[in-house]
Amino acid sequence: xxxxxxxxxxxxxxxxxxxxxxxxxxxxxxxxxxxxxxxxxxxxxxxxxxxxxxxxxxxxxxxxxxxxxxxxxxxxxxxxxx
Length: 82
Prior knowledge:
Helix content: 10-25%
Structural class: alpha+beta
Order of helices and strands: EEHHEEE
Number of helices: 2
Mean pLDDT: 84
Largest sheet: 3 strands, antiparallel
Strand order of the largest sheet: 1-3-2
Distance between the termini: 42 Å
Low-confidence stretches: none
């Protein structure tokens, strides 16, 4: 198993995240993983195959965080619009 967030060392697009599909994900949009898989296949890193396997068998997914939000909140507070 690769260290947490290690994929960031292997892919060139800093906006792409790789997440496990068994955990609910909010505030994100799923994106096509084919370009990321191709980039990982060209890597010689020992953990690249771990991510390739996860993406190909559906245990992992590539996502992009949504940047739009009109709600601002702090931990323990109700949200408000500003």
